[in-house]
Amino acid sequence: MTDWRREFAEEARSDRPDLARLCLLVGAVADPELTQADLDLAEVELDRLAGLVPYGTRGADAWVAALSELLGRREGFQGVDADYQRLESSLLHEVLRRRRGLPILLSVVWLEVARRAGAPVYGLGLPGHFVVGFGDPAELRLADPFAGGRPMTGTDAELIVTSATGEALDPSMLRPATAPAIVLRILNNIRAWAASRPERSGVALWAVELSLLLPSHPARLRYERAELLVQRGDFLTGAAEMEAYATVMDAVEPSAAEAIRRRAKAARALLN
To answer: Boundaries of each Protein SirB1 N-terminal domain copy (predicted)?
Structure first.
């Protein structure tokens, strides 16, 4: 049996992580029935789509128009509100099959197709909504794949940020997202989806564990993993990981560390 998690860890920590490969490996962990052949077919589909981009496309505006025509209109990639309720909307192989997904997964399709076609493309992780940009990031030639590739202006980006945060757009929000950062955000979405579904705690657990394999991740995810282990009945392992996390927290938040130790003690008591 292929060790998808090991492959994910190796890809995530390589010199140039491949975004499509990482996203497909997330899908392989989510769906034990997937094979390497299935992942290869997904890569072939991305290659096929890239081959349909008009040859000789030049300029940011032309790239937006070409990808919008191909992916949004002809191929039907777009999103609807109901997609937020489906785990499949966060799995690249399913998004390629269904032509539906969350904004960030539809953006991954755009990024990978455009990159293969030679476009100067990047992802932009605005608060609450992921979009893609073309050309010089300072020019803000943006498109919204969730809306079928609708062109966006700087004002549109500001409105998205204000609606999501109530604050003005900060220039740091316009930095192109790296592949590991995009994958971490995808895994955060999966964790959020599973959090409201206690019966899917197994999904939350593997999403946390994949996040911990990324080269950069929030330290608190270690505590979240420990809580999930306790929730799933692995009281001893969960308690031990809570105590390990409490030791880390001693130097920064002693009161929080003590609260975590009490939680670990309560988890151990569940064995009695």
So the answer is: 60-188
